[in-house]
Design goal:
Elements (H helix, E strand, L loop, with lengths): L2 E5 L2 E3 L5 E8 L7 E7 L6 E6 L6 E3 L7 E5 L6 E5 L8 E8 L11 E2 L3 E5 L2
Parallel strand pairs: 2-11
Antiparallel strand pairs: 1-3, 3-8, 4-5, 4-9, 5-6, 7-8, 9-10, 9-11
Length: about 120
């Protein structure tokens, strides 16, 4: 069974950091485009960041530039999203997805994880 699994979420105080991981079972993420998305309560799912299969191209939403860093090591399965200087408005369910292009468009990603909660609160 092919699955994508996110981990590393949780409750963190404003200004804190988390590292989210995206891993696959039943296949490997190596050389696939991987995107991170998030969905806050009552809002649409939005693209946060993506990384090309080689890791040479990365894109970020303006709202997270300078605070979030996406990375991968194709010798190992996970794709990481390091999130620093967290703000309450970063509170959302974060999703990892695999698609053909490094973009922030939800419809371009075919395979999704179940999501993981990130809550930023004091």
């Amino acid at each position: 069974q092919l699955q994508i699994v996110e981990s590393g979420g949780g409750l963190v105080q404003p200004g804190g950091s988390l590292r989210l991981s995206c891993a696959a079972s039943g296949f490997t993420l190596d050389y696939y485009v991987v995107g991170w998305f998030r969905q806050a309560p009552g809002k649409e799912r939005e693209g946060v960041s993506c990384i090309s299969g080689s890791g040479g191209v990365t894109n970020y939403a303006d709202s997270v530039k300078g605070r979030f860093t996406i990375s991968r090591d194709n010798d190992k399965n996970p794709v990481y999203l390091q999130i620093n200087s967290l703000k309450p408005e970063d509170t959302a369910v974060y999703y990892c997805a695999v698609g053909p292009y490094c973009s922030g468009y939800v419809d371009e990603y075919a395979y999704w994880g179940q999501g993981i909660q990130v809550t930023v609160s004091s």
